[in-house]
Amino acid sequence: MKTFCGRANPTTGSMEWLEEGEDYDYHQEIARSRYADMLHDKDRNVKYYQGIRAAVSRVKERGEKAIVLDIGTGTGLLSMMAASAGADFCYAIEVFKPMANAAVKIVQKNGFSDKIKVINKHSTEVTVGPDGDMQCRANILVTELFDTELIGEGALPTYEHAHKYLVQEGCEAVPHRATVYVQLVESTRMWSWKKLFPVHVEAEDGEKILVPPSEVENCPGLPSVCDIQLNQMPSSDFSTLSDVVKMFSVDFSKPVQSASTYYRVQLEPVKSGKAQIVLSWWDIDMDPSGMITCTMAPYWVKPTSALQWRDHWMQCVYFLPREEPVLQGEKLYLTACRDEYSVWYSLQKARADEEENKADVCVESPVCRCRAHLLWNRPRFGELNDQNRTRQYIKALRKVLKTDSVCLCISDGSLLPVLAHYLGAKQVQCMQPSRIDLYHPHELWQAFFKANNLEDKIKIIEARPELLKPSHLEDKKISVLVGEPFFTTSLLPWHNLYFWYARTAVSTHLASNVTVLPHSASLHMMVVEFQDLWRIRSPCGTCEGFDVQTMDDMIKDSLNFRESKEAEPHPLWEYPCKSLSEPQEVLTFDFTKTVPQQCLSTEGSVKLSRKGKSHGAVLWMEYHLAADISVSTGLMQLSNEKGNCEWNPHCKQAVYFFSSVIESEILSDPTAVTYAINFDTKTGEIAMDFKL
Ligand code: SAH
Description:
Blueprint: E1 3-9, E2 14-20, H1 22-31, H2 35-39, H3 42-61, E3 67-71, H4 77-84, E4 89-93, H5 97-109, E5 116-119, E6 138-143, H6 155-165, E7 167-174, E8 177-186, H7 188-191, E9 199-203, E10 206-210, H8 214-217, E11 226-228, E12 239-240, E13 245-251, E14 261-267, E15 273-285, E16 293-295, E17 315-326, E18 332-338, E19 343-349, H9 372-375, H10 378-384, H11 387-400, E20 406-410, H12 416-422, E21 427-431, H13 442-451, E22 458-460, E23 478-482, H14 498-505, E24 510-517, E25 520-530, E26 542-543, E27 546-547, H15 549-559, E28 568-570, E29 577-579, E30 584-590, E31 600-608, E32 612-613, E33 616-626, E34 629-632, E35 635-638, E36 645-647, E37 653-657, E38 665-666, E39 671-680, E40 685-691
Parallel strand pairs: 3-4, 3-6, 4-5, 6-7, 20-21, 20-23, 21-22, 23-24
Antiparallel strand pairs: 1-2, 8-12, 8-13, 8-15, 9-10, 11-17, 14-18, 15-16, 15-17, 18-19, 25-29, 25-30, 25-33, 26-27, 28-37, 31-39, 32-38, 33-34, 33-37, 35-36, 39-40
Helix pairs in contact: 1-15
The structure holds S-adenosyl-L-homocysteine.
InterPro entries: Arg_MeTrfase, MeTrfase_PRMT7, PRMT_dom, SAM-dependent_MTases_sf
Protein name: Protein arginine N-methyltransferase 7
GO biological process, one term: methylation
């Protein structure tokens, strides 16, 4: 079987479909999987174990045999817990073949082969009967099928089916119930992930304000969940307008309905403000009494004793369809609509004349019609709304633009062409290379230009850089070439170096005295100790007394599947870390010249100047726009005493996890980490190697 994997090519800015061997998919999935994170989630594991023990006891007290159905067994962990707790037999269902194979090995290694039958099927394919996968229906249903949104991984249809076909009526369920909580908040920061705020530009002839067209203003945005580590959101970045409210709950021990429905609660704002965002999280009760609870509540809600870091379950940010001014004490209804896999929210003012105004209850799932939410993802909205950043670009543009400038901007969904026009460039064109094949943003831009009286002022060239013709430029040469640079196909920070390739492709169209903005870029690197992120790539050994090393080995194999280990993108504002070395510039890229034929390599060493565990290196790009004006997509600030880092909140940084994480504690004199970094100009990829 052949697998085709989509991969952005940083030298062309476009997606390419590469043929991979059949192992590829699964190695990717295992290497980047959440299994390690789940196995490190002590709070989760302990509570599942308690809940499973209690359920087995209840069944035994009734004098019944305990027959367990574990849907999505993964490593087999929950089935092994059940078997240890005295269950008579467990059916462990796992759809993902490599995991089902691993579960068989792990179950065997832990001596449970006679009690646990691993079935490599989707639960809806499982059969019951004398010749079936299961001899009889189970009376204990154990699952862990939840994502941050609770239902996004298909828990509801899976439960619905299991109650119909796989478990007995009145079965015990672990978890017993899940409850979803919400809190209404006002937050300019989070709202800036959905809306484009007006952009103010101080031009020669007065202030210009770029406003989004009404289609964008009124668009409900995207249905996809926005899940974040809400515990990293400082309380100064939002203001709570309501108490925490129970939105809905699901009892897993009874038949579950997955069909679309809605839930409604009454709210009274605790203060007046602008309702913009619904923050949401859930908890699961492992037993009917509610004594064993695992909660995702954020820091301002839960007791510190319940703090457990995890990345496989976080919190959700929902954007209301529109901002709604609310008054303290007024009566509001918050409605949660859901389908089988996702949830969305709307807010209604209670009317005096009717108890429930059902007409506007069931709003359809948010669909972006304005196209801006397809062009810009949430972090990108945040970046475009970052006024400090915009100011840097304005300052730099002002330095380089002249009234006779012929300007070409190469970046996806960029506002730079508008800024260049406002700042007086005579002719402005733009290219959005990696958006060409995916989606034609023409209509959106026309709406933008119309809303700002910019029709015919900025020309969108719908060609790739290598196909640029003099006629696209009205037979003029480009005197100012600009880019943020930003491309939607970029996964790792250096993929935006596609700007350099595009610049090379349009070389013949550049005036001899062309100004390129940014004129150069640099790659920076720093060794860090993560507060928590290390868990996702760290071996587990034993989990609640069960040997899961098979899983560790499997992850290690998958990580080593590619010849050189790869860096992975993470938004580090969500993952606190401490710098152990000074940040170091490791490579520079000169955009005033074309991409060279030969690779750019560097070798060196960094001194570990602070005590700590070296979990890995963080790498990011900085763009040098003009003399003294640079923007960083990584480190923004470093507090020197403690080494706490502040990261660009709109960008993902590259994280390279060292393979010997545990051994890297630095106790005495400055140790050095040596590195070798190579930018392959043919592929646009950066390979690296570190030695501790
Ligand atoms: N139970 C394990 C793993 C949980 S991860 C633990 O708690 O540590 C969830 C697993 O369920 C994944 O491995 C996924 O492949 C599997 N899965 C999800 N839905 C499933 C279904 N309907 N049938 C079978 N497996 C499923």
